[in-house]
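Input chain follows. Return structure tokens only.
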Amino acid sequence: MAQVLKAEMRRLGRSEVLKEFLPLRDQVLELKEQLRGQRKRIEELEKRLKQARSPARTPKLKAVKEEAADKARLSPASIKRHRLRLKLSQRELGVLLAVSTQAVVQWEAGRSAPRPLYRARLVQLRQMGQREVRRLLEEG
């Protein structure tokens, strides 16, 4: 008789556990599916962010001799003056030179100086007019 009672209690216990467990199992499966969808969405967003952050094609500027770039006077005020003369924003100047907007801000504030490659590009821009610069921006 004791064995029959134990067996019946086990059976009832299992059935009660299953009643509680099955809805939880379904919720877990649903949550796992949502997680897979969110991971996929995150990957897509990261790809888009990476593409947005990657620099656009840099417009091709005419070559300038290194000597001319080294001899050119490029003060923070002159960089800003030439940018304003060409009616460019700091971001647009950064795109033309293939540098960040923050780099242009630092140059104009005098907190840093352009590297030789960017000095040469700045010298090239000084020799250009507004139309040429706008055309370069549209091409890039």
